[in-house]
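ARCHIVE CARD
CATEGORY: sequence design from structure
SOURCE FIELD: tokenized fold
FIELD CONTENT:
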């Protein structure tokens, strides 16, 4: 979907990507297609405000680069890496303002916790929300946060500058980064959950391996 002036929405999927896995890639591609935009930005949270990351920011950034090399429609962004302090969504959106309608991709669980976000009252004036949902998720959906209005089609979000919320059913796989890390630590095969390049990188650098106790 393009706006009247031909501007396409800028879709952003933020996360620690620790590691970036098939669920992230599937969600980004589903959002790209639903929005009719040529690409999705993968925004690396260098200093997540709510928890620490297991792999260094350098490793997580390189894994994002490997994914982007295999799929040029997925664009890694280092905006938050270069900014001091914790990674807050509102600061990232402020920095991206003026580049066209911004669409922040968010999961159902994160939507339910959005009231706790830093300066959440500003979000509706900065972006739209595209809520990614898993197959078989509960039919009852949480209400739109204050300031957001429900839009029945993701492709219509860019018709206004900000403040819209749309749902994208079946856009998430039942995979989490913590599950991937646990499987790697337990010696399980995760080759179907990661791209070949990312899995090779993890093995080469010994990421997420069990910690040796002394």
């Amino acid at each position: 979907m393009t706006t009247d002036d031909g501007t396409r929405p800028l879709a952003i999927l933020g996360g620690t990507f620790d590691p970036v896995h098939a669920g992230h890639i599937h969600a980004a591609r589903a959002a790209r297609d639903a929005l009719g935009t040529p690409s999705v930005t993968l925004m690396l949270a260098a200093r997540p405000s709510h928890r620490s990351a297991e792999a260094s920011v350098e490793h997580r950034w390189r894994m994002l680069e490997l994914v982007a090399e295999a799929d040029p429609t997925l664009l890694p962004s280092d905006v938050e890496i270069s900014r001091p302090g914790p990674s807050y969504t509102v600061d990232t959106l402020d920095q991206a303002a003026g580049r066209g309608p911004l669409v922040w991709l968010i999961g159902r669980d994160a939507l339910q916790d959005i009231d706790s976000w830093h300066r959440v009252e500003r979000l509706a004036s900065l972006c739209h929300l595209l809520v990614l949902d898993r197959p078989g998720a509960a039919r009852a959906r949480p209400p739109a946060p204050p300031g957001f209005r429900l839009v029945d089609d993701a492709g219509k979000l860019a018709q206004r500058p900000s403040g819209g919320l749309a749902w994208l059913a079946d856009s998430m796989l039942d995979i989490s980064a913590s599950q991937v890390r646990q499987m790697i630590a337990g010696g399980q095969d995760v080759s179907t959950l990661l791209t070949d390049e990312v899995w090779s990188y993890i093995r080469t650098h010994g990421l997420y391996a069990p910690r040796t106790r002394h």
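CARD ANNOTATION: The longest helix spans residues 22-35. The chain has one domain: 10-174.
SHELF: design records, drawer C
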